[in-house]
């Protein structure tokens, strides 16, 4: 099998969940708990692979995204209205709020790489804007504007590979304790680690990636291959891209554990991690970490608005112009949030609550959809249903705990 077939729509998922939120969460996990939460990372990657395989298979067999399938299969008006409201709240409104964090995180990486240039300071003082956010938002617009799936996929493959190189190289420079990483595979919950575990899993297993993957798979393999061949290529794609995302997250966790755990140092964000590496491990580690943060922020700044647009298009049958307007509006909101140092805590809280409700519902819907007659010979087998049920149970526990903490 050619190398190109190893990377496809699953790379969009990796680009989506390896964003500033994941970098911050993995950094805090490593800084505060060392390697003790590696098991939670392994679980989250495994659960993601199970769900994303179902989403990709649904897209390939039906030729439609998750939103389209949701609209066709959920016919009861009250249930459909509730589902639509949750998707819009969790995916569209939520991604608008998160987009500010994506651009802010990418800006932190750019600042660590190139510092406060005089022309940037002058422009910021004159306009009041975060110039890095504007420039990076413009790059996201350029990538998405032509609407060519192949171009978007290639851009994100490049960003994921660059992230992998940056973060894994940083980890190797810091010389991690591989025996401690192995010990962290055994499940344990250190004191005060519950919130971090929820965050680590919650930043990887997210509903909007299912919309993104199903639509991407339907687009990539529509009318181009036989279904068995497309499913074979999709499986190779998932086995390559999703674990690669887990390796990137592990590299960040490991770097933070080496730099901070047991040293009595405090870390507030991923930017702190990049800057703190220089006195410990040299300037190369700082630059690599900062470059990885920049690539992570930019990749999520492309995928978050795209996922929201896919979800809304499937549910509401948007035209091509409306589809473009959706992702463009989300990028503009993100630039505004990042530029004016807004802290949309209420919106993000609202989105997190909606995500907590939506994730097990979407997981249940996926199980229903991939077992429906429309899947014919490509329905779930017994093992896939068992794994799906296990992930559903985990999402219910995760969502219940998240909602309890949100309202407590």
UniProtKB/TrEMBL annotation:
GO terms for cellular component: plasma membrane. Its main location: membrane. One of its GO terms (molecular function) is cadmium ion transmembrane transporter activity. The chain crosses the membrane at residues 36-56, 77-98, 129-147, 154-173, 193-219, 240-261, 281-311, 323-341, 347-370, 382-407. It is a multi-pass membrane protein. It is found in: Membrane. GO terms for biological process: iron ion transmembrane transport. The keyword Acetylation does not apply. Keywords: Membrane, Symport, Transmembrane, Transmembrane helix, Transport. Coiled coil: none annotated. InterPro entries: NRAMP_fam. The keyword Cell membrane does not apply. It holds the Pfam family Nramp. PANTHER family: NATURAL RESISTANCE-ASSOCIATED MACROPHAGE PROTEIN 2, SOLUTE CARRIER PROTEIN FAMILY 11 MEMBER. NCBIfam families: Nramp_1. This is Manganese transporter. The lineage of its organism: Bacteria, Pseudomonadati, Pseudomonadota, Gammaproteobacteria, Chromatiales.
